[in-house]
Amino acid sequence: MGFELGDIWQNEWARFDQVIDVRAPAEFAEDHLPGAVSMPVLSDAERARVGTIYAQESPFAARKIGAALVARNAAAHIEAHLMGHDGGWQPLVYCWRGGQRSGSFATILRQIGWRVEVLEGGYRSYRRAVVAALYDRDLPFRLIRLDGNTGTAKTALLPLLAVRGAQVVDLENLARHRGSILGAVAEDQPAQKGFESALMSAFRGLDPTRPVVVEAESSRIGSLRLPPALWRAMSGAPRVVIEAPLEARARFLRVAYSDLQTSRGGLVDLLEGLRPLRGRALVETWQEQARAGEWEALAAGLMQHHYDPAYARAREAGAPAATVRAERLDGGDLPGLADRVMAALAQVE
């Protein structure tokens, strides 16, 4: 039996007990259906070997070797992962295009007696649906941007807004990057395709009749691009702006970017990337502050001479929908600030 994707926003594959991706590990790592588990019937090396035999010897020889490898790997997955399922278990299986790998694995599972279905068109059909939703159509959600200069605790406010009932999508968390030259985190960024699947998952299930709060971002977060539908929705969205004194923002950044303080040499190297933009004298001053552990002075200088001017140039003309002023941004001050942001959001709605 074949399962065809319908509305990509509805997560129709959730009706299955398990979604199994039988592609090679590298394919799964780049992107996969949300919630899928990896049970490769060919490893990366085995897939490359079979492909080489197919191209250099014959398709028939490749199919023979591939069948033996698939059968062996399928047996290992059944023994390791599937023995506990009863006869009513119903999985969805997919490979790259819904062909031999998923078909072979599904045949074995059906012979056991499980009610398995194969995704028609495989991962390619899912990817086409994602591209249609995020590139070719308008995003079916109304956005509000949480804006403000660097250090105004926008990212830290998002989970506080969520627990207060706002619909929130944390773009920097999904991108695993804080959105600036110093924004890399310990975990590598996902592939572009994986990022777009994460975006679909984050928006899926939200109420399209209520606004969704996102942090104001540029069109790129680290190495990742915001897909066109999201960027269009953000570009036209109203802004709620957080304002705070430079000193309060510097104190906040000292805590928020504490991970960078553990490797002063690494931070000095990152600051070197600002030399073409801000000149030798400023960058060397910042590097000396990093070496000396003068974190608040460094944060204040970076904001005053780099981030704030860059934000001012990038920010479009026009008044924000609302402005919320904060004199302090220490941890104990953020819940009260979140309350005031919620009140501002209600006015925008």
Keywords:
349 residues; alpha/beta; 5-stranded parallel β-sheet; 14 helices; elongated
Walk me through this protein's architecture:
The strands form three sheets. The protein has a five-stranded parallel sheet with strand order 1-5-4-2-3. Strands 7-8-6-11-12 form a five-stranded parallel sheet, with helices on one face. The chain has helices spanning 25-30, 44-56, 59-82, 100-112, 122-136, 154-163, 171-175, 192-203, 228-235, 246-256, 264-272, 275-292, 295-314, 334-348; strands at residues 2-3, 18-21, 37-38, 91-94, 117-119, 143-148, 167-168, 212-215, 220-221, 224-225, 239-243, 322-325. It has 349 residues and is α/β, with parallel strands linked by helices. The two termini are 46 Å apart.
List the helices and strands and how they pair.
Blueprint: E1 2-3, E2 18-21, H1 25-30, E3 37-38, H2 44-56, H3 59-82, E4 91-94, H4 100-112, E5 117-119, H5 122-136, E6 143-148, H6 154-163, E7 167-168, H7 171-175, H8 192-203, E8 212-215, E9 220-221, E10 224-225, H9 228-235, E11 239-243, H10 246-256, H11 264-272, H12 275-292, H13 295-314, E12 322-325, H14 334-348
Parallel strand pairs: 1-5, 2-3, 2-4, 4-5, 6-8, 6-11, 7-8, 11-12
Antiparallel strand pairs: 9-10
